[in-house]
Protein 1
Amino acid sequence: MVIIENLNKFYEIDGQKQYILNGINLSVQKGECVILKGVSGSGKTTLLSIIAGLDKPSSGKVIIDGEAVSKLPDMHLSKFRAKKIGIVFQNFNLLEGVNLLDNTMVPLIADKIGLKEAKDKALNALKLANIEHKANKIPSELSGGEKQRGAIARALVANPNLILCDEPTANLDRENSLKFISALKKLHSMGKTLIIATHDPIFEELDFKHKVVEISQGKIGFAVDA
Amino acid sequence: MNELFLNNYVIVYLFSETVLFLMALYAFFKDIVILKYWDFESFSARQLKLEKQGYLLSTIATFIFALKFILLIYFVYMIDSLSIIIPGAMCGAGVISANSYGMPLLFIKLTTIFTFLLFLTLNNLDLKAKNYPLLKLKSWVLLAALLLIFLESFFDLSYLFNIDLSVPVSCCSALFGNLEGANPLPFGLNIKNLLILYYTLYIASVLAILLENRFLTAFTLILFAIISYYAVVYFFGTYIYQLPTHKCPFCMMQKEYYYVGYLVWGSLFIGLFFGLIWVIIGFLKYKNKTAKQIAIASISLFVVLCSSYVLFYYLKNGVFL
């Protein structure tokens, strides 16, 4: 499903290469749940952004479903991301002033489907994320937990096989974090591949995780198969 | 250095051209690196950097093309405006022929725009695929376009530096009037045969495009463009000016003629350029329906526009010029 080979991300400052990611190799099979663990600044978010095609690596391969994401031209990358990858961000990234239903429909724009079909898909996704009763609310009227479930619905709406979560519980209390984890479990049972970047210890208790990967200073410290 | 360089139009023109020259210079070196080191199969830092630079180059090329297009119109407007300070010049025709660099400069400008348009079309097709199949070709085309910019800069400076404000130039009537004993039309044509050839080539061009015969399209379109130039200057233009002795390709771009010259020449060149681009990408086994439609629409607009001046003149006055 996801193959990462010799991935590097660096910036050149005064002729010196400053590595954000250094020689990352990782393989994630279809349906697996992988936790990327590490302190702030360790490179988790950068790795996730490169997997999602939101950022480009300096060198190395990222292959998802046989497609070299790091080399796709922009117009293909946007379509690929819209169809194959769902992303849940730490700060939810919901559009203010637009209700949750419309927020959820945003990834379908690339699909160019009709409004009615898009609405049906969005309502289904909101139902899966257990937030359909707030479909007409705008983000400022929602709690942190509700916003995060809205973000899950948006990540799910195009029915992607790969869901990436970047510090998804960083802005949630324990109760909402547990609700979020139960939503993740539902996704896992649907056969979705999950990659979660976090430093929240709550994820160490997950009973459905397959692998915990420690990232430290841009390198993989250890990978433990659960 | 003469007072020409203190003219506002010239200052703005040279400043814009200098900016484009510097951008072209940067793009030129980057393009050479891409041509030398491109290896799509590689995942090395150099290759991924080249892929990013490829986007930068296409952005620069788009910017240069857009500005060159505007500057071409501006250039025509500028030389028309300079006619007031160049002795003997009544319009752009006199200014452009003030020295031997003028006409080649205009031709290079048109060729540059065409080459950039070809690059942008190839770039668009290239990015529609996942593995940059046209990368090398489009990079060579870009290199040619950038070289044309350098050549154009040389001709720009040579042209403007070599305009001698103390020497009167020939203009419209002297240059394009009926010279006794000399037939200015090509292939020994007279006006009647010129018009027959003009309409025949128009129909042939449209048919060749519709029948998707690319060799015939290229041949007829280029010939049509050449014949059209003479047809406009020596026949249709006289109806635009409503004066049988006024044979000039530039005056029709002035306010008195509602700037119609821009539409006349613009529609001809847009039709020619898009037609040739359709031919070239067709040889590369790509289809571009839009280029085909623009080509037909533009040359048709050109023919209708030119013919309507004759028709309306006749309907109004009951006679031909």
Protein 2
Amino acid sequence: MKTGRRYAGQEQADALPGTPPQSRVWRVLGALASLKLSLVILAALGAGILTAYLSAAPATWALAAPLAAFALNLLAAVATNPVFRRKTPLLIFHLALIAVILLLAAGRLTYLKGQLELAEGEVFDGQLTQEESGPWHPRRLDVLRFSNEGFTISYAKGVRRGATRNRVAWAAPDGSVQHAVIGDQDPLVLSGYRFYTTHNKGFAPTFTWYASSGAAPVTGTVHLPAYPLHEHKQALEWTPPGGKTPLWVMLQFDEVILDPAKPSEFRLPSGHLIVVRAGEARYELKPGERVSLAEGVLEYNGLRVWMGYTVFYDFTLPWLLAACLLAVMSLAWHFRGKFFARPWDKPSTGTS
Amino acid sequence: MAMDWEPLTLWVALVVYVLAGSLAIFGGVLRTRPEKAVLALLVLGLLLHTASIALRWERLGHGPYITMFEILLSNIWSLLAIYLLAYWRIPAIRPTAAVVMPILFVMMGWLLVTSPHEGHLPATYHTVWLFVHIGFGKVFLGCALVAVGISGVILLRGRRHAGNRFASLPDDSRLDELSFRFMAIALIFETLMLIAGAIWAQDAWGRYWAWDPLETWSFLTWLSLAFALHARVAYKVSPRTGAVMVMAVFVLAFLTFFGVPFVSTAPHKGAV
């Protein structure tokens, strides 16, 4: 019998008890378990990573195929090679590697990554501005709620962003309102969904729209482009609810919010105007002022800030960490046993 | 005018390192073994280097892990610290200093032409995972450097001009065994570095892995290391082939550590 996967000291006659030596299944498993095949798969994985890295289009297959082959190779090795019955750390290491690959696959099938924006005082309603998810993602996002209670961001000299402190509130399962400060390293975790603040934030004029059709007034915010990233483009085209004519809205202020010459903090301008353009007409609004347009009346209520968040869901995270730690600890255990068994400067006896 | 101790201690440390390295190289060429002098000089250099880093840390309020100057400054320190430990504990491999020190000379030269300006500490760096991730990375590269020193001797022995200058070291098969033991330890610490980095990335950027340039090349380095260790078991490669594989892994690791920050536009700049 030849398994193909040989370790130093392994006997040629190794076989599972009761297994016919020439069984076809056994030969296939032996070939799958080959150490040399492992090398080919590692090389294929490296090539797959380079392909995915250099390719403009998604190349998941380039990683998935070698990883699947690697899992089969490891499983066959564990099933057929008696060295794993003798060397517990090596067995644990290989099982942990298999677990890592399976968990990675489970993670890719069930993950969710997305983005959202909330103005100060707004409540997240389950809607994302962008998202991607695995085909088996158990969508529980729609029932999650939290509100943005405002934030502070410090800037060092040269407009270099410092700590972000975002106050958030949400309702606990018992109905009580919970508060927390998130930002930078500290996400808000709700039902496995991790909400992170981002560098993306800006100003949000708040309007109430009274449609001439008689529909109920609608109050909402317009999220202007991120600040200070688009410092000189604080304008946006926007169509009021139920309307057809787009409006062009611009925030205008003269003061320096983030002074490159000294430390500063992200804040609202102390004085500002909102410029509204509807066709050829131009209006300037201060908080509390309103303007009559063809399709209704637009009332400007005031300026707020908005924060961009990313949301990430992957239920495998703690299991993946545990499997990785188990793999590395068992590998260290294996090497320790191997190295302590024989000093490096003593001749090899032919066994590992 | 008050003396600026920070650059002064660094300059003196570098001069002492160069003296130690030169002594080791000339010792190899002249077949003398000035090992105690080399050891003493390396210890002195490392103490001065430590003092310079401590002064900079105190002045800036953060450790040496932001700018390229700081990356080189701290990596020369950690590589020397790990090599010094091996040099002290394994006297049989001390002639490998003639291989290792020139690599460090290149890094020292690079350090001297790099601007020592102050960098901005990003908000995501205020975490213990910074130290865990960087610490594991430094042990990984240090172990790989020791293996490179040993592998360099194996490869040099085969050259005609090397003569019997490394005859005092153990035979190739034993050096190969020791070299791969260091590579095995390097694999453990590189794996830990990747795990700690993934934990940090999850907190800092909301994802544990995104195949950014540094993550990609770090994983390729990990794969190459795993490949080299596996190939040694699978094919029983000769010490010379093993030495070539060690060199290849180190080159890839070196380019990942010090090359990717130049080409990457991702937030993960690899300031380790």
